[in-house]
From TrEMBL:
Alphabetized UniProt keyword annotations: 4Fe-4S, Cytoplasm, Disulfide bond, Iron, Iron-sulfur, Metal-binding, Methyltransferase, S-adenosyl-L-methionine, Transferase
GO MF annotation terms: methyltransferase activity
GO process annotations (BP): methylation
Organism: Bradyrhizobium elkanii
Main enzyme class: transferase
Name this protein carries in UniProt: 23S rRNA (Adenine2503-C2)-methyltransferase
Residue stretches making up the Radical SAM core domain: 40-274
Lineage: Bacteria, Pseudomonadati, Pseudomonadota, Alphaproteobacteria, Hyphomicrobiales
Protein family per UniProt: Belongs to the radical SAM superfamily. RlmN family.
Cellular localization per UniProt: Cytoplasm
Cofactor(s) in the UniProt record: [4Fe-4S] cluster
Enzyme Commission number: 2.1.1.192
Keyword Disulfide bond: yes
Superkingdom of source: Bacteria
C-alpha cells in the first residue's frame, strides 16, 4: 500500500465474510469495507471513502454530522490497494471485482481526488468495475461524463431514496443538490454519451414503498435507461439491531413492484451490518474519531437535525 495512511485497523466479521478497515493519518480518517461472495476469486467488492466525514449531512448516515476534508487520490487508492492486499490473491485472479465509491463522502464533491484516482485504479485494476455512488450535488456534470467516456468500467448510481422532492429534502438536507427531475435528466444524458445504464438507489421503508411510490419513480426514471438498486435499511447507532425481517421483506416487495414496471432490479443487503457496522452510512469508528478530533471535525449541515433509519449502500 502506498504511504498515505499511518494506521490501519482491521475489524472482522468472519461469519459473514466481511472485513472493515479504518485508516488514520492524524489529519483525516477513512473507512473501507471488503466483501467476498463467497470467496475473493469468485467475487470481491470493496467500498471505499472519498472524503473524511461528509458535508452533505444525510440524516441516516454516521458520517453526516461532520466534515474534515476531501481525500487525496493517494488516500483513496491506498484504501483499495490495502483491501486487495488483504484478500491474499491478485486482483487479476478475481473473476469479478467491484470498487464502489460509496463508503464515506460525496465523490462528486471531490473531483481533484476522484478523477486521478479513477485513472490510476483503471490502470492498476483494468478488470475492476468502478462505481461512483452519488447523492447528486448541483455541480457541472460535464467532467463526470468525460471521465466516464474515457474509462469504460465506470458506473454511476444516484442515491434517490424517496419518490418526492419533499421527502428527499428531509432525508438529504444539503441544499445545493439536484431535484428528482434533474437527476433523471443527468442520468439520461450520461446514458446517451456512455451507452451504459445508470442506477438509482432506493431504500425501502414503511413510508416510501407503496404502489404510488413505484408509479412516481416510473414516471421519472425510464426503465429503458435506468436500472434500480433497492437497499435494505439499517441502523446507524451501534448496539441497535441493524436490520430485521420486516425491512428485508419491504425491500423485496418493493423491488417486485419495480420489476413489474420493467426495471432491472438488484436488492442490496450487505453482510456485517449487525456486527461490525458493515452497512455504509454506519461508520461507528469514524463517529468515534470525530468525537476525539473536535479541532478537525467541522459540523456539517446535518448536525442537530433528527436522525432517521439508514439506507445501506447510502452515499
Ligand atoms: S450518505 Fe453519503 S452523501 Fe450522505 S452524508 Fe453519508 S457519506 Fe455523505
Amino acid at each position: 500500500m502506498r504511504p498515505a495512511w499511518d494506521n490501519v485497523k482491521r475489524i472482522d466479521d468472519a461469519a459473514q465474510n466481511v472485513a472493515k478497515f479504518v485508516f488514520d493519518n492524524g489529519t483525516a480518517v477513512a473507512e473501507s469495507v471488503l466483501y467476498k461472495y463467497p470467496d475473493y476469486a469468485t467475487r470481491t467488492v470493496i467500498c471505499c471513502s472519498t472524503q473524511s466525514g461528509c458535508p452533505v449531512g444525510c440524516r441516516f448516515c454516521g458520517a453526516g454530522d461532520n466534515f474534515v476534508r476531501s481525500l487525496t487520490a493517494d488516500e483513496i487508492i491506498a484504501q483499495v490497494e490495502h483491501s486487495i492486499e488483504q484478500t491474499g490473491i491478485q486482483a487479476s485472479e478475481m473473476k469479478r471485482l467491484q470498487v464502489m465509491f460509496m463508503s464515506m463522502g460525496e465523490p462528486l464533491l471531490n473531483p481533484k481526488g476522484l478523477v486521478p484516482a479513477l485513472r490510476q485504479l483503471y490502470q492498476l485494476y483494468p478488470n475492476a468495475a468502478l462505481l461512483i455512488s452519488t447523492s447528486a450535488p448541483m455541480i457541472n456534470y460535464e467532467w463526470v461524463r468525460e471521465i466516464s467516456m474515457e474509462i469504460p468500467t465506470i458506473g454511476l448510481q444516484f442515491s434517490v431514496h424517496e419518490s418526492t422532492d419533499a421527502a428527499r429534502d428531509a432525508l438529504v438536507p444539503f441544499k445545493k443538490k439536484l431535484n428528482l427531475f434533474q437527476i433523471a435528466t443527468e442520468g439520461m444524458i450520461w446514458h446517451e454519451v456512455t451507452g451504459r445504464s445508470p442506477f438509482f438507489n432506493y431504500c425501502a421503508h414503511d413510508g416510501n414503498s407503496s404502489t404510488e411510490d413505484a408509479e412516481r419513480l416510473w414516471g421519472l426514471f425510464d426503465p429503458l435507461i435506468w436500472n434500480a438498486t433497492v437497499s435494505v435499511v439499517c441502523e446507524r447507532s451501534e448496539g441497535m439491531p441493524a436490520t430485521n425481517e420486516h425491512q428485508r421483506s419491504l425491500a423485496s416487495d418493493f423491488s417486485l413492484k419495480l420489476v413489474e414496471r420493467g426495471y432491472d432490479v438488484r436488492v442490496f443487503d450487505p453482510a456485517g451490518q449487525d456486527t461490525i457496522g458493515g452497512g455504509c452510512g454506519q461508520l461507528w469508528f469514524v463517529q468515534k474519531w470525530m468525537q476525539d478530533h473536535p479541532d478537525l471535525a467541522r459540523p456539517s449541515i446535518g448536525r442537530g437535525l433528527p436522525v432517521v433509519h439508514a439506507p445501506t449502500n447510502a452515499a
